[in-house]
Amino acid sequence: MLRAHWPRIDVTTVDVSIKAPFTQQMVDEIAQSSSPAARYIAKYSQERYYLWDEFAACAWLDPAIVTGERLLYMDIDLSHGPSYGDTLTWTEPFKPETGVQLVHAQVDLDLPRFTKEFIGLMKTPPPGK
Asked: What is the distance between the alpha carbons of residues 127 and 129, in angstroms, rounded to a whole number?
C-alpha cells in the first residue's frame, strides 16, 4: 500500500493514536444509549486502551479531526530480520531511490472533537431502527 501510486496516502500513526485514549467517561456516556453498539461496548468494555482504528475511521469521516501532520516518505521493513515490520521514514533530502511514496503522517488531533464524534457514532442506532 505504501508503494502504490495513490493520489494521497494518509497514515494514522501510533503517535497520534495514543493521544486518543478510551476513557471510562466515554464508556459511561456511550452506555446511555440503547443502540446495539452502545450496549455491546457497555457490556464488554473491560479494559481501557487507545482508539487506534477508531481514530483512523473518524479521521476518514471527518478530516478536520486531524490538526497536525508531517509529510514524510514511508516504508515498512519486510526483511524478515529483527526489525521486520518496523516503520521507516525519511524527509525529502534523505529518501532512498526505491519508489517510496510521500505520506501525510497524522501527528496531532482535536481530542474533544474526536471524542464527541466517536461517542455520537457509538450511540447512534443503525439505519432503519
From this structure: 6
